[in-house]
């Protein structure tokens, strides 16, 4: 797999650590929550699950954050999203040594193998157990090393990048939907995409009836002050991009005591709430 050219950082001080927050909500109408999110800090011999809030150094361990939105009958969607994030726990630590030695040449292969392992597991379970029939999931993940964020993506969850001192939010993943294709090619506008009847019809996901799945992969150079948002489609349906920037940069009413992820999810659910809604915000420090 040949990844796209990495997004190089501007010159400046090297990042020393990360600050993160995560939040998920089933929304106002769904009976259960089929979203999952994950935060890990790891090296080649140990793994630490992260809490919903925290800050830590990048000096001797890598980080991975991920969101997934499961689909399927009964509780298959919940199982699918949980399987996706738990596979990450077992597979990514193997690649820590490579990342410590400078992984730019090989990160795409590592992430492609990870996504293939998750896909095979979901297909097997979906074909073996009636309660798992039709299980599938989206998966968007960011792997943070001292100088880079490597990402992988399948589905219509998203990763956004807000560069330091910028108010221009950049969606670095591509929605695997026809509506996403229309939006990328400027055939419709953001407000039209949000109300399009086919906006939730996936062209690609992990599991389900897909025989092969090739993830989108890429890399972004890190600078202190950069912010990354990983979210499911419940959040992007409840907030326009300029609202996301406002909630990340300027908390309404000075509500700095509320985490960025909570501000985003609470506002999206209040605005819409039709779907499960999940956000993980990672700030480079």
Structure report:
With 285 residues, the protein is of the alpha+beta class. It has one domain (17-26, 33-170, 206-284): Phosphatase 2c, domain 1. Helix content is 29%, strand content 27%. The protein contains eight helices and 14 strands. It has helices at 76-91, 96-100, 107-128, 178-184, 190-195, 233-238, 241-249, 260-271; strands at 17-25, 35-42, 47-49, 53-57, 62-71, 136-137, 139-144, 148-154, 158-162, 170-171, 206-207, 216-221, 227-231, 277-284. The strands form two sheets. Strands 2, 3, 5, 6, 7, 8, 11 and 12 form an eight-stranded antiparallel beta sheet that branches. A six-stranded antiparallel beta sheet has the order 4-1-14-13-9-10. A hairpin with a 7-residue loop joins strand 9 (158-162) and strand 10. The radius of gyration is 18 Å and the shape is globular. The mean pLDDT is 87.
């Amino acid at each position: 797999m040949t990844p796209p050219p990495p997004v190089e950082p501007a010159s400046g001080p090297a990042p020393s650590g990360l600050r993160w927050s995560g939040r998920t909500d089933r929304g106002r109408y769904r009976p259960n929550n089929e979203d999952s999110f994950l935060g890990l800090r790891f090296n080649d011999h140990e793994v630490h699950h992260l809490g919903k809030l925290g800050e830590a150094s990048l000096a001797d361990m890598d980080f991975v954050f991920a969101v997934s939105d499961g689909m399927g009958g009964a509780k298959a969607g919940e199982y699918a999203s949980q399987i996706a994030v738990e596979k990450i726990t077992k597979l990514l630590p193997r690649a820590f040594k490579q990342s410590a030695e400078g992984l730019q040449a090989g990160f795409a292969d590592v992430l492609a193998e990870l996504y293939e392992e998750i896909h095979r597991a979901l297909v097997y379970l979906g074909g073996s157990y009636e309660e798992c029939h039709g299980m599938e999931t989206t998966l968007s993940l960011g792997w943070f090393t001292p100088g880079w964020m490597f990402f992988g993506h399948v589905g219509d969850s998203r990763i956004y990048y807000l560069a330091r001192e910028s108010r221009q939010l950049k969606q670095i993943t591509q929605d695997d939907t026809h509506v996403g294709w229309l939006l990328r090619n400027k055939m419709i506008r953001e407000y039209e995409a949000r109300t399009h009847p086919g906006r939730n019809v996936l062209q690609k996901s992990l599991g389900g009836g897909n025989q092969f799945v090739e993830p989108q992969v890429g890399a972004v150079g890190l600078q202190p002050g950069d912010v990354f948002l990983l979210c499911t489609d419940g959040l992007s349906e409840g907030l326009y991009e300029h609202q996301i920037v406002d909630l990340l940069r300027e908390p309404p009413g000075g509500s700095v005591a509320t985490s960025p992820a909570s501000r985003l999810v609470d506002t999206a659910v209040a605005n819409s709430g039709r779907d499960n809604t999940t956000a993980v915000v990672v700030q480079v420090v």
